Amino acid sequence: MENLPNCPKCNSEYTYEDGTLLVCPECAHEWAAGAETEEDTNIIKDANGNILNDGDAVTVIKDLKVKGSSSSIKIGTKVKSIRLVPDAADGHDIECKIDGFGAMKLKSSVVKKA
After folding, report:
1. How far apart are CA 57 and CA 32, in angstroms?
2. 109 assigned to some structural domain
3. Percent of the chain's residues with pLDDT above 70
4. Domain CATH code at residue 62
5. Is residue 21 classed as helix, strand or coil in its secondary structure?
6. Which residues have a Cβ under 8 Å from the Cβ of 71 and sit 6 or more positions away?
7. What's the pLDDT at 21?
């Protein structure tokens, strides 16, 4: 059996090859064999797997309760000019302003690229 590197994201030893990519079955991270850079680990993707960039517009894909407010952010709310925070410890990797709510942090898993 060949010796494949551990997953750079979760350090799982159960990686496998899929064509030219290495894949981790535990966290679903994919990367090119031997070509992992710091920049590659900071890529933020939306719920559909599209790569997000600073300044993009996104759409919320599920209703979100807002802590400290009686209202919620409704599905389909469009958010313009996002700012990405790749090293967010709490998982909220998007900073933005939402009309009616103000400055917010969102998780990339609850938005899709508009």
Report:
1. 28
2. yes
3. 91
4. 2.30.30.40
5. strand
6. 100
7. 87
- The number of distinct structural domains making up the chain is 2
Alpha helices in 1-108 (DSSP H): 38-41
- Here the tokens at position 8 are 């750079």
Q: What is the pLDDT of residues 18-72, one digit of tens each?
A: 888 889 999 888 888 765 444 556 789 999 999 999 999 999 999 999 988 889 9
Domain that holds residue 100: 58-113
Query: Looking at the structure, do residues 31 and 67 belong to the same domain, yes or no?
Result: no
**Cα first-last separation, the chain:** 44
Copy the structure tokens of residue 5.
């590197």
Q: Which comes out higher in pLDDT, residue 41 or 110?
A: 110
Hey, how many other C-beta atoms are within 10 angstroms of the C-beta on 14?
Answer: 12
Q: Which residues, 6 or more positions from 12, have their beta carbon under 8 angstroms from its beta carbon?
A: 6, 24, 25, 26, 27
User: In whole angstroms, what is the distance from residue 9 CA to residue 47 CA?
Assistant: 18
